[in-house]
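Lecture 7 notes: from sequence to structure.
We start with the chain below.
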Amino acid sequence: MASEDKITDNERNMLLNRLHRPLFWVGENIPREVEIEGKKVKLHEIIWEIVNKTLFSKADIKNIDHFLSLLKEKEREYERALERDDISYEEARNLFNETAGIMRAIMDLTQIEEETQRKKSQDTKHACEDVEEKEWEHLVKEIITDKNKRK
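Predicted structure tokens for the same chain:
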């Protein structure tokens, strides 16, 4: 098959199915650059910096959330193009690789966000260290008693 031949429905479906397999993005390369909202973004560099950061402020988390939503929209845009556009097989493969790389970036950022949320919940559980066990037991008994009264 010549690289300029149009993609067949079968080839298109194979690529789309690969995008939806669990963990297929493992080992995929994050694109060096991607255009988001009309601006070239050095995606690989940004992801590398975020992944290697050890502490995140609330502003960092908010920015990561916003960046994640932009990347998810870009991923959907690429996937729609792969589904519908009249393109060659080579163009489809390139689009597939770009989409896979963006999905890898999304997963990397999602893992960071989840880790940060877990750390936050562990940090807050120590907020009541000075509360004695008797107080907890009393509170639990009160809650159970109130709940039983409402039945």
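Points to note: The longest helix spans residues 89-125. The chain has five helices and two strands.
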